[in-house]
């Protein structure tokens, strides 16, 4: 039997001890942001750079960034003091909180009428509903992606009355199960007929269309996963062994940052806002992880 809560408690205690041990009192001269796998473009790089320059003015130190090649890599970087801030999805946040001592500062809020996730297939596919997915090839975005894997999987189980084994073992419900390594890669996998279906964030679809990577008629949406209002946008999280002054400065910066170009680039929606969140806002997602019988290790094992 999986012991997610026990593992969470023990790992949190260990992270706390390591954080205290790691506080050397030396003044930090660089603040590093790890960007998670997402749709990449020149426009996004431009607004990210402006965001970093604005944060530099607040912190009084150099702000640099790099593109992590996976959710796990970003979490490991934060755990080893190689990254200071990252925008995690809800599920990757709860793993980062446990494994790396990540502390939630601000979350993304957008139009809650938009779905959390969508199931997409090629526009000329004969797939029209979830029932048609039996025997097909699926491409999930990433093992710890909220909208690209875990919530769609939970939705499949609930909607079709499937067992966890049926949606996780190849040859049971799906012919094959794949992880694309990012939302944009999952979308491309569908348009290139690598996957019969993929689960992705609708915001990524909008951004890829806007940037000319795909066209609206390259794919069709066969099902939408309803959003959870609080916490569904994930969280900007900072390493918890930073000083309270630094945490507060970064938090205040995020909550007052109102560059419309940057905010729209996060989700593809002009209604995007950054709002205050706390760790308890992600308890619902911890419950989902528990219901899927997922330990923290399994969230990162794929």
Automatic annotation (TrEMBL):
Q: Name one Pfam family in it.
A: Phosphonate-bd
Alphabetical list of Gene3D superfamilies matching this protein: Periplasmic binding protein-like II (3.40.190.10)
Report the SUPFAM superfamilies cross-referenced here. Periplasmic binding protein-like II
Q: Which residues form the signal peptide?
A: 1-21
Keywords annotated in UniProt: Signal
Q: Which family does it belong to?
A: Belongs to the phosphate/phosphite/phosphonate binding protein family.
Question: Can you name this protein?
Answer: Phosphate/phosphite/phosphonate ABC transporter substrate-binding protein
- Organism whose genome encodes this protein: Lysinibacillus agricola
């Amino acid at each position: 039997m999986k012991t997610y809560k026990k593992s969470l408690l023990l790992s949190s205690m260990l992270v706390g001890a390591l954080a205290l041990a790691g506080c050397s009192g030396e003044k930090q001269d660089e603040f590093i942001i790890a960007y998670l796998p997402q749709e990449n473009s020149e426009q996004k790089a431009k607004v990210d750079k402006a965001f970093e320059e604005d944060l530099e003015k607040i912190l009084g130190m150099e702000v640099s960034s790099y593109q992590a090649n996976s959710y796990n890599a970003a979490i490991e970087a934060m755990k080893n003091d190689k990254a200071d801030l990252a925008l995690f999805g809800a599920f990757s946040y709860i793993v980062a909180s446990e494994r790396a001592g990540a502390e939630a500062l601000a979350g993304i809020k957008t139009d809650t009428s938009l779905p959390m996730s969508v199931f997409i297939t090629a526009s000329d596919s004969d797939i029209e509903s979830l029932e048609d997915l039996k025997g097909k090839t699926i491409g999930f975005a990433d093992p710890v992606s909220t909208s690209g894997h875990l919530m769609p999987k939970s939705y499949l189980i609930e909607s079709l009355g499937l067992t966890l084994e049926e949606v996780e073992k190849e040859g049971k419900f799906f012919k094959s199960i794949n992880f694309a390594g990012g939302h944009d890669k999952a979308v491309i996998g569908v348009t290139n007929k690598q996957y019969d279906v993929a689960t992705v964030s609708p915001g990524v679809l909008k951004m890829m269309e806007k940037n000319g990577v795909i066209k609206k008629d390259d794919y069709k949406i066969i099902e939408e996963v309803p959003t959870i209002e609080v916490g569904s946008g994930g969280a900007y999280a900072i390493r918890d062994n930073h000083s309270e002054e630094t945490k507060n400065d970064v938090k205040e910066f995020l909550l007052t940052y109102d560059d419309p170009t940057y905010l729209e680039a996060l989700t593809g929606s002009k209604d995007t806002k950054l709002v205050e969140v706390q760790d308890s806002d992600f308890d619902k997602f911890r419950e989902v992880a528990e219901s899927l019988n997922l330990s923290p290790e399994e969230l990162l094992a794929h």
